[in-house]
Amino acid sequence: MSKLAEVGLPTLENFSVQIKPPALVQLLGVIAIAEPGRVLSAFFAGLHRAACEDRLREVSVDVRHLTFVNSSAIRLFVDWTTWLRNLGPSESYTLRFRTDRRITWQRTSFSVLQTLAPNAIVIDAE
After folding, report:
1. How far is CA 69 from CA 32, 49, 63, 103, in A?
2. Residue-averaged pLDDT of the chain
3. Residue 26 carries which DSSP code?
4. Dihedral over alpha carbons 17, 95, 107, 16 (to 10 degrees)
5. Which end of the chain is more exposed for a tag (fewer CB within 10 A), N or C?
6. DSSP-derived secondary structure for 56-98
7. Please, which residues bridge with residue 20 across strands?
8. 18: buried, middle or exposed (CB in 10 Å: 19+, 13-18, 0-12)?
9. Mean of pLDDT values over 115-122
10. pLDDT tens-digit profile of 67-83?
């Protein structure tokens, strides 16, 4: 069984996650609590560890239905990008974000993430 499929899903009001084989993570709802890292940091770190342990070449993250995140929640994506950027070439994988170009926070935030790790972040804006 994939390590990615074993990552514990967080419990947060108005937010849900689905993980589908082989490597699709769907994030839905909103992240608007004051300190989202307290609830979600371990989840994002778990996704990263699992991707490394599974030796995945790519993880697709669908955020098209994640309609709002506060600035503290954007930090979770920055952290994930930083962990990925710090991997060696043989350990690295690509993060492919599926975004909705009509959602402002996605359009602005993910373009910045891509500049942090241009060889590892791919944005598919629909």
Report:
1. 6, 23, 11, 11
2. 94
3. E
4. 0
5. N
6. -SEEEEEEEEEEEE-HHHHHHHHHHHHHHHTS-TTT--EEEEE
7. 24
8. exposed
9. 93
10. 999 999 999 999 999 99
CB environment 71-110: b (16+ within 10 A), e (fewer): ebbbbbbebbbebbeeeeeeebbbbbbbbbeebebbeebb
Residue type, 54: D
Among candidates 84, 74, 88, 87, which has minimal Cα distance to 122?
84
pLDDT tens digits, 61-71: 999 999 999 99
Helix %, strand %, coil % for the chain, to 5?
A: 40, 30, 30
Q: Which residues contact 84 (CB under 8 A, 6 or more apart)?
A: 48, 92, 93, 95, 117, 120, 121
| Both structure tokens of 66 | 């994640």
Residue 59 has pLDDT above 80, yes or no: yes
